[in-house]
User: Which sequence fits this backbone?
């Protein structure tokens, strides 16, 4: 994606910057690797030694233990197959239906599926269970097979995303958006950049545009935690818009500091306005005074804030420390 075809950079000026220059493109995968070729296959009990044990002496082999009735298996399948194809032959994927071929799963003590085990040099080396996100599958393959050619670009993208996150935390929507747009020029499907761009739109008051962006994503991306956090942020903005005049709420608190309803509303408004420590302090005050209010509603709302703010947000760390002292005092 480049130039005028990039929908993520049009409202924020330049879509590239010096800090987001990635140099040459990664080397292309071979035709067989690009199309899947023999990178992905089903195996049987009889073929397992050849397809997995022997083949893993040439390059790592991921064995996906699955069953037709397993919902998470169906969720994982298209993701892991796509990542293996994009890995360009660094790993192979062998799928084993444990209903038809239970022996190896039993020998390896696999009790829950989907389960993926990486074989290296004829032996199990590592693995994971469950339908984990695509980003974690990529990290797993990099761990097993080593970094891909072109990872100089991956490192530059990671650095750019970190810079953009810092600008976003500083509420510099324009600066952050230009970096996220640069990443999306190089990797149009980068989830972190898509989520970051949507957060920039929210910060710039373009809520409808942010909603349009995340609604345009496929179901897999919509289920990513970063995109779910954006949607929750939009929901909080919509809720806060209906909570009334913050000055009137502050007046109510001046008359009665223990008006928890007014304080809860002020916390929600402060959060969407970016006054996150103030938002946390309001909820922490309620927690100290009355844990029974709305069935510990202040603590639950604070956890909702954490999902939107993210773990690196200073207000998150501040509020977690304060909350722990209240909960365990």
Assistant:
């Amino acid at each position: 994606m480049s130039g005028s075809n990039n929908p993520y950079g049009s409202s924020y000026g330049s879509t590239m910057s010096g800090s987001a220059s990635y140099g040459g493109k990664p080397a292309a995968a071979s035709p067989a690797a690009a199309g899947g070729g023999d990178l992905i296959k089903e195996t049987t009990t009889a073929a397992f030694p050849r397809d997995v044990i022997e083949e893993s002496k040439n390059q790592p082999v991921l064995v996906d233990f699955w069953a037709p009735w397993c919902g998470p298996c169906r969720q994982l399948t298209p993701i892991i197959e796509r990542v293996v194809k994009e890995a360009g032959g660094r790993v192979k994927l062998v799928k084993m239906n444990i209903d038809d071929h239970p022996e190896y799963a039993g020998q390896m003590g696999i009790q829950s599926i989907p389960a993926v085990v990486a074989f290296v040099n004829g032996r199990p080396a590592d693995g994971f269970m469950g339908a984990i996100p695509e980003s974690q599958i990529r990290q797993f393959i990099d761990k097993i097979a080593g970094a891909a050619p072109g990872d100089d670009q991956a490192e530059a993208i990671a650095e750019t995303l970190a810079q953009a996150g810092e600008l976003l935390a500083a509420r510099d929507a324009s600066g952050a958006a230009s970096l996220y747009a640069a990443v999306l020029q190089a990797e149009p499907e980068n989830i972190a950049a898509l989520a970051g761009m949507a957060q920039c739109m929210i910060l710039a008051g373009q809520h409808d545009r942010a909603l349009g962006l995340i609604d345009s994503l496929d179901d897999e991306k919509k289920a990513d935690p970063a995109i779910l956090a954006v949607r929750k942020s939009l929901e909080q903005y919509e809720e806060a818009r209906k909570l009334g005049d913050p000055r009137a709420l502050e007046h109510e608190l001046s008359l009665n500091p223990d008006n928890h309803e007014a304080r809860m509303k002020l916390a929600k408004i402060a959060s969407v306005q970016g006054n996150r420590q103030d938002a946390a302090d309001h909820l922490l005050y309620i927690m100290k005074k009355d844990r029974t209010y709305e069935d510990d509603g202040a603590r639950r709302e604070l956890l909702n804030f954490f999902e939107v703010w993210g773990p690196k947000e200073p207000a998150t760390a501040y509020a977690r420390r304060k909350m722990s002292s209240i909960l365990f005092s």
Q: What stands out?
A: The first strand starts at residue 40 and ends at 42. The radius of gyration is 24 Å. The beta strands are 40-42, 61-66, 92-97, 115-120, 123-129. The CA atoms of residues 118 and 126 lie 5 Å apart.
